[in-house]
Write a structure and sequence with these properties.
Mean pLDDT: 76
Number of domains: 2
Shape: globular
Helix content: 25-40%
Number of helices: 4
Low-confidence stretches: none
Radius of gyration: 16 Å
Distance between the termini: 11 Å
Largest sheet: 2 strands, parallel
Strand order of the largest sheet: 1-2
Structural class: alpha+beta
Length: 124
C-alpha cells in the first residue's frame, strides 16, 4: 500500500519485523543464552515494558520517553527517513496506549507523522 503511493519503507519497528532482530544481541556463552536474553530482556514491546529505575527519570516525562523510544529516533536518522507512519492495531490496548507518547516523540523530533489504524487482520 505505501509503495503504491510512491513512498519507500526504509525500516519498520514491529513485533515481527526489525524489533525482533535489531540490534543484534550481545554475545553470551551460548546461542541459547543469547537468544533467551534477547527475547526475555532486550525486546522492546509495550507488553514487556520495564520502567526506568527509580530516580533515573523522576518527574521528567520527556526523559522517560527518550529512554523508552530514543532508539526509534536513531533508526529514523540512520535510515534517513523523511517521515513516520505509526501503525496502531485496533483492539490492542497496550499498543494504543503508546500512541500519544510516540506522537510526542516524533513531533518534538521534527518528523512528520501519520497514524494508520488497522485491525488485527491488517485490513483498513
Amino acid at each position: 500500500m505505501i509503495e503504491s503511493l510512491g513512498a519507500n519503507v526504509v525500516i519498520d519497528d514491529t513485533c515481527v519485523g526489525s524489533r525482533a532482530t535489531l540490534p543484534m544481541s550481545s554475545s553470551l556463552t551460548t546461542l541459547f543464552d543469547g537468544l533467551s536474553y534477547r527475547y526475555l530482556v532486550e525486546l522492546k514491546c509495550p507488553r514487556t515494558f520495564r520502567g526506568a529505575k527509580i530516580g533515573d527519570t523522576k518527574r521528567d516525562y520527556m526523559q522517560d520517553l527518550d529512554n523508552r523510544f530514543g532508539y526509534l529516533k536513531n533508526y529514523a536518522r540512520e535510515w534517513k527517513a523523511d517521515g513516520v507512519i505509526l501503525q496502531s492495531v485496533r483492539y490492542c490496548d497496550i499498543h494504543g496506549y503508546e500512541v500519544p507518547a510516540l506522537r510526542i516523540i516524533w513531533t518534538v523530533s521534527n518528523f512528520p507523522i501519520s497514524i494508520l489504524n488497522t485491525t488485527i487482520l491488517g485490513r483498513l
